Amino acid sequence: MDRFISANEYKRRVMIVDDEEINRLMLGNILESEYEVVFATNGQEAWDLLHGEEKDISLLLLDLLMPVMDGFALISKLKEDDELKRIPVIVMTSEKEAEVKSIRQGASDFITKPYDMPEVILARCERIIKLSEETTLIRSTETDAVTGLFTRDYFFEYIRQIEAHFKNRIDALVFNIDHFHLVNEMYGRDTGDATLRHVAETLEEVLRPNAIISCRAEADTFYVYCAHIEDYKPLIAKIQEKLGNVSGSSKIRLRLGIFQEADPDMEAEQRFDRAKIACDRIRGDYSTYVAYYDKELYQRSIYHERLIKDMEEAIANEDFKVFFQPKYDITSDIPKLRSAEALIRWMHPELGMISPGDFIPLFESNGLIQKVDHYVWKKAAKQIREWKEKYNYSIAVSVNVSRIDIFDPELQDKLKEILKENGLAENELMLEITESAYADNANTLVEVTESLRNAGFLIEMDDFGSGYSSLNMITTLPIDVLKLDMKFVRNMEKDEKSMKLVELIIDIAKFLNVPVVAEGVEAQSQLDTLKKMGCEVIQGYYFSKPVPAEDFEQFIEKEIS
């Protein structure tokens, strides 16, 4: 079936409202070649038709002087009706004063009686309908459907218009709701939308004396173009107080990033990008609500741009190096090499060694981490194969699977292709997934991990206990290994609470019948304590820091000797 409608098949509907039959017939004859024409004899009849079966009217041609309800009364009623006020009105009159009055009242145009110029009438109808439809389309895309605030594109367009006349100092504000995805996850999308509306209303209420224009830029991020304020801390505190106990959760928290540089030559988008960088800087930092974009952030953003620009070249030139850190089984008297973890390092030809703490979070935030992960998977698999060929010894290696990888529909195929290229089994390339990925989309993560496990892969839950843990997660997520976050290991001998949490996590792992890997072990006393608790596998500087593949071979040689 043809899915397109020919212009000749589709006619817009216009309504002629006039108590004089001759006028209705004359206008009808002029318009019927281009439009489907509906007639009414007075304002009341037109009003009734518009509330009945004639709701798809594109234009009203309206006489002003009629019995029962005249044209002026009908125009007033239309403008008060939220649904019908969109319909443009062309008045038909021979009185100049009536023309001016009707235009001021809301009519779009007028046609002068008598109707002796059909081409002019058709041209005016066409123009008014086109303008009306374009205006309706613009309005439908101008505001966000959930909050009623401007959309991002219109927000910036209005800023450009405002700045042509507004010369005072202004600030770019970016607000973000921490962990908003959890609201949708725990309470449902309707509650999430209600939360967004409440935040929008609160921002407009509190910022009204200073705010010039605002928008919902994306998901849970709001932009506000605001007259300069010296101290925003009391303001964000007031906003936070007014938000109160949203959706039954006291954890709803706003972060604010601010860019205050008054550079008239800087594009509005660039100002808000910088404010967003400041806002993102305090993600997860519950000690502060407000961050300002400063010179340090500017230098860091330039540095990050350099890293992003150089990433592809680093992969092509193999400037990314894969190091390996051993994991030892400590259940027996003599620790036994159990597996290894692949960890990436960046040897930049100009900048030197770049810390993973600099580039991994950056690439996670913009999606580039997927390319880096794929590079590591291939390098790790190739190294496993080479060690098997050299030593006739298979050592499983853990590789990181980032949150963005989880949403890749080709994830399993990509992993299997790498294994096939190197002649490896699925259990030789273990997959580490951080527990924070569960908070992003629990259902998807569970589905993906179940599919990977059914295909033979071993799943390790990394950084367990780092802040996102829930009993629901560890009982629903299919895993083979639980990795204890290294912060607990480092603190357990000086912090009784950390010690108790380590014991609890190991007990949970025993209940789930999965081994625990303790990361960050540096001392004999830590090893002894963990072994006494029932921890099976240790990873950390006690045995070795992450080392290049050639240095790791000493551990294999010692194991097989």
Q: From the coordinates shown, what is the CATH architecture of the largest domain? A: Alpha-Beta Barrel
Strand content: 15-25%
Helix content: 40-55%
Distance N to C terminus: 74 Å
CATH topology of the largest domain: TIM Barrel
Enumerate the strands of the largest sheet in spatial order, edge to edge or round the barrel: 11-12-14-15-16-17-18-19
Q: What is the CA-based Rg, rounded?
A: 34 Å
Low-confidence stretches: 1-8
What is the SS-derived class?
alpha/beta
Q: With helices defined by DSSP (H or I, 4 residues minimum), what is the helix count? A: 22
According to CATH, the homologous superfamily of the largest domain is: EAL domain
Question: Overall 3D geometry?
Answer: elongated
Short description:
The protein is of the alpha/beta class.
Topology:
Blueprint: E1 13-17, H1 21-31, E2 36-40, H2 43-50, E3 57-63, H3 71-80, E4 89-93, H4 96-105, E5 109-112, H5 118-142, H6 152-163, E6 170-177, H7 180-187, H8 189-207, E7 211-218, E8 221-227, H9 233-243, E9 254-259, H10 268-281, E10 290-292, H11 295-316, E11 320-329, E12 336-348, E13 352-354, H12 356-366, H13 369-391, E14 396-400, H14 403-406, H15 411-422, E15 429-434, H16 436-440, H17 442-454, E16 459-464, H18 471-476, E17 481-484, H19 486-491, H20 496-512, E18 516-518, H21 524-533, E19 537-539, H22 549-560
Parallel strand pairs: 1-2, 1-3, 3-4, 4-5, 9-10, 12-14, 14-15, 15-16, 16-17, 17-18, 18-19
Antiparallel strand pairs: 6-8, 6-9, 7-8, 11-12, 11-19, 12-13
Helix pairs in contact: 2-3, 7-8, 8-9, 13-15
